[in-house]
């Protein structure tokens, strides 16, 4: 950014007058009058937004936005955007002028993936704090506005968004594209929306290809910067979706890590690539997200990051998981591996606790010879495989105790409190015929008996059944003698069909009592109870016994 651009904007308070104070309504009208008297802003899209949201007192809507811009600058006419009549902070001076030049020279269709050629501002992108950064709550609210089917792409400065009626938002804000969920960051990630959304909002609303190409490239850079900052400040890696990582790689780690002279910073580049490689190795499944959430259920952002550490070796930087996420096999750090080996197993065996390594017959970490599939050159015939190991009969107690695993060393016991019964309340209005028939055939009970309960009760009871069985197996394992056990009937009695049927029958009353208690509490607060859509409520009235067909 050259000197002429630096001096092309002056502080708003010096050039126009004092900013309006949001909590002092007497300052809104005078500030709005001063704003509308500026040259070239009365007919801007920004002022149309203020007047459209609140035609009676647009000064209040103007105050809501300016309250978030204490460092606002008045740009020159060449750098004045119709989407916003000020420059939010010093580092953004000259942006709209650069974007206009880029847009005039843009004649190609939007490429399949973004590139560094579509970045309007030059590096560096990893800048030290200058005191003008938006507070974290502003970035969080901007992210929340993008969620759902009716989400909109909103800048962190647009505090008036919450005051805009839903019916009018499509006239003034950029609708989040249908593909946006594939590129969204997890909750709690402090990634700033692209600058083009602030200074070329109208171009994005019109579907301008130049604006959208810049949007993608800037979003890749912004999320990459947030990824690096999260590691530097918190030693975590943010769980970005695969397509967003593809955008970051397409722009290029070399370009994102470049300094003011455009030369890459090898250390920063290696760090970014190491974090991206680790993200490729992590499972992106609902089960893995649930595993993270269970570590801190009270933290809404816990599902969006994993603790990591960077280890630098001869082959460069490598990111390793620095928390125990068993039973998942991940590239763990040395500290996690050593901690597993040092902690004695709560079941009594001096082995690693909840290790991510597979436990093989015999209780060891090394698979038996019969488990190997040797690879041989094409010129040499493979050696004959050893016959599989045949376990002795239960009567051979001496040999049996040597061959049968002496302990189950990995146990992650569930508790009944882990079962989210309230999440199944939305199923209470469903006829249980299909669920009841499936459970009746498996458990060997009468389907008519189960049809007395709504589908939500049956699903909840099925979850509690898993808890009951897991607790029973864990208790059985703790009673196994150190030298082995021949009491396999005891284990079969825990997981046999009769035992499952009894456990399921015990769970149903608990589930019903809990649902009735929630129904009573919902009635007390006056919010009603989620009984389902009217059409399905009518269907339940048609089949009062709950056996709708």
Describe what is shown at a glance.
This protein is mainly alpha-helical and 549 residues long. The protein contains 23 helices and 7 strands.
Protein model, in words:
The relative contact order is 0.06. By secondary structure, the protein is mainly α. It contains 23 helices and 7 strands. Strand 6 (305-313) and strand 7 (316-321) form a beta hairpin. A 3-stranded antiparallel beta sheet has the order 5-6-7, covered by helices on one side.
Rg from alpha-carbon coordinates: 31 Å
The total of beta strands comes to: 7
Distance between the termini: 71 Å
Oligomer: single chain
Assess the beta-strand content as a share of residues: under 5%
Structural class: mainly alpha
* Helix percent band: 40-55%
Rounded mean pLDDT score: 77
Q: What letter string, H or E per element, gives the SSE order? A: HEHHHHEHHEHEHHHEHHHHEEHHHHHHHH
Biggest β-sheet, characterized?
Answer: 3 strands, antiparallel
Biggest sheet, spatial arrangement of strands: 5-6-7
How many H/I helical runs?
23
Q: What are the low-pLDDT stretches, counting only 5+ consecutive residues below 50?
A: 1-7, 345-414, 527-549
Shape type = globular
How are the SSEs ordered, and which strands pair?
Elements: H1 3-6, E1 10-11, H2 12-15, H3 28-36, H4 45-53, H5 58-66, E2 73-74, H6 95-105, H7 136-145, E3 152-153, H8 166-172, E4 174-175, H9 195-199, H10 201-205, H11 209-234, E5 236-238, H12 242-251, H13 253-256, H14 266-281, H15 286-295, E6 305-313, E7 316-321, H16 334-342, H17 397-403, H18 433-443, H19 447-450, H20 455-479, H21 488-495, H22 497-525, H23 534-542
Antiparallel strand pairs: 1-2, 3-4, 5-6, 6-7
């Amino acid at each position: 950014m050259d000197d002429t651009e630096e001096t092309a904007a002056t502080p708003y308070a010096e050039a126009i007058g004092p900013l309006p104070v949001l909590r002092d309504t007497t300052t809104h009208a005078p500030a709005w009058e001063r704003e509308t008297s500026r040259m070239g802003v009365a007919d801007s899209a920004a002022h149309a937004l203020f007047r459209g949201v609140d035609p009676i007192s647009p000064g209040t809507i103007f105050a809501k936005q300016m309250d978030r811009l204490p460092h606002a600058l008045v740009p020159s006419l060449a750098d004045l955007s119709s989407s916003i009549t000020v420059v939010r902070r010093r580092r953004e001076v000259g942006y709209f002028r650069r974007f206009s030049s880029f847009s005039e020279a843009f004649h190609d269709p939007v490429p399949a993936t973004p590139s560094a050629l579509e970045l309007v501002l030059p590096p560096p992108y990893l800048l030290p704090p200058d005191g003008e950064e938006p507070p974290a709550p502003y970035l969080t609210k901007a992210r929340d506005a993008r969620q759902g089917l009716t989400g909109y792409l909103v800048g962190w400065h647009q505090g008036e968004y919450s005051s805009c009626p839903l019916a009018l938002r499509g006239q003034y804000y950029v609708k989040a594209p249908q593909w946006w969920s594939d590129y969204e960051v997890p909750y709690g990630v402090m990634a700033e929306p692209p600058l083009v959304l602030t200074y070329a909002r109208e171009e994005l609303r019109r579907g301008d290809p130049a604006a959208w190409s810049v949007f993608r490239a800037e979003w890749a850079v912004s999320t990459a910067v947030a990824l690096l900052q999260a590691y530097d400040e918190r030693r975590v890696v943010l769980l970005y979706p695969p397509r967003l990582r593809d955008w970051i790689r397409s722009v290029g780690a070399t370009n994102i890590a470049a300094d003011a002279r455009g030369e890459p910073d090898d250390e920063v580049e290696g760090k970014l690539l190491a974090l991206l490689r680790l993200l490729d190795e992590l499972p992106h499944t609902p089960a893995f997200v649930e595993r993270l959430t269970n570590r801190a259920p009270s933290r809404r952002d816990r599902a969006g990051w994993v603790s990591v550490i960077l280890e630098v070796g001869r082959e460069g930087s490598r990111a390793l998981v620095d928390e125990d996420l068993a039973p998942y096999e991940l590239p763990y750090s040395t500290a996690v591996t050593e901690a597993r080996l040092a902690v004695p197993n709560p079941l009594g065996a001096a082995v690693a606790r909840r290790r991510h390594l597979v436990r093989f017959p015999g209780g060891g970490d090394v698979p038996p010879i019969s488990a190997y599939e040797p690879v041989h050159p094409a010129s040499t015939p493979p050696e004959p495989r050893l016959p599989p190991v045949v376990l002795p009969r239960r009567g051979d107690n001496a040999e049996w105790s040597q061959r049968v695993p002496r302990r189950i060393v990995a146990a992650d016991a569930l508790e009944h409190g882990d079962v989210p019964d309230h999440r199944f309340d939305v199923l209470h209005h469903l006829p249980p015929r299909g669920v009841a028939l499936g459970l009746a055939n498996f458990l060997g009970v009468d389907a008519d008996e189960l049809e007395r309960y709504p589908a939500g009760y049956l699903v909840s009871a099925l979850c509690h059944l898993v808890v009951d069985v897991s607790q029973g197996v864990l208790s059985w394992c703790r009673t196994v003698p150190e030298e082995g056990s021949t009491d396999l009937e005891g284990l079969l009695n825990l997981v046999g069909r009769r035992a499952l049927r009894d456990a399921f029958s015990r769970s149903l009353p608990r589930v019903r009592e809990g649902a009735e208690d929630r129904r009573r509490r919902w009635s007390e607060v006056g919010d009603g109870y989620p009984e389902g859509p009217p059409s399905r409520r009518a269907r339940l009235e048609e089949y009062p016994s709950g056996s709708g067909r």
